[in-house]
TrEMBL record:
PANTHER family: SLL0788 PROTEIN. InterPro entries: DUF305_CopM-like, Ferritin-like. This is DUF305 domain-containing protein. Signal peptide: none annotated. It holds the Pfam family DUF305. Residues 41-184 form the DUF305 domain.
Length: 193
């Protein structure tokens, strides 16, 4: 059995803010008024996810001195801010595209399974006193969940304006997951030296 990690005050402060961001994201993604439009529902559900990526990145920037993590956080802020703006710009038009009750049910079942797994993984206790490692672990799971959520909505009849945004989100998040996994491995190797 592994001993619990003794966390520094700095790590505790980082994690407390992370938990506030996570709680707000989970609440925002869970308590959405569902309509007959999968496009509309998805936009309302994914906006808190994208905002959380921005806030989590801003949080790590207060603590990290690692240039690679800083650059990554700044990239996430830029791309997530752009995604939020694109989604908000089309939201009023996308809600016009309606779906059947059967499609809504299927969409929501998959959505609940994906978010449940993501919320659980993002709520796991820290494995390190290293803020960079904690941030990367959290953000990898966050991005994996985002990819699955976007892939889920693409299975249905949705607003045509939403499709290129979703494809771009998937590509960006997949590229970033690879980048973060490599960086995480490098940081773990350094920690074990």
């Amino acid at each position: 059995m592994t001993k619990p990690i003794v966390l520094s005050n700095v790590t505790k402060a980082y994690l407390e803010e992370y938990q506030r961001i996570l709680d707000k994201m989970m609440q925002g993604m869970t308590y959405v008024t569902i309509t007959c439009s999968i496009s509309d529902n998805f936009i309302k559900q994914i906006l808190p996810h994208q905002v959380a990526a921005i806030r989590m990145s801003e949080n790590v920037l207060q603590y990290t001195t690692n240039i690679f993590v800083q650059n990554l956080a700044l990239e996430i802020i830029a791309t997530s801010t752009e995604t939020v703006e694109c989604l908000e710009a089309i939201q009023n038009r996308c809600c016009i595209v309606q779906n059947s009750e059967c499609e809504l049910y299927e969409y929501m079942c998959a959505y609940k399974e994906i978010t449940g797994a993501m919320f659980q993984a993002m709520s796991l206790p820290p494995v390190s006193n290293n803020i960079n490692i904690n941030f990367l672990r959290e953000m990898i799971v966050h991005h994996q969940g985002g990819v699955r959520l976007a892939q889920n909505v693409l299975r249905f009849c949705i607003c045509q304006e939403l499709i290129p945004i979703l494809r771009n989100m998937i590509q960006t998040m997949c590229d970033r997951i690879c980048e973060m996994e490599k960086l995480l491995d490098a940081l773990k190797d350094c920690e074990n030296c």
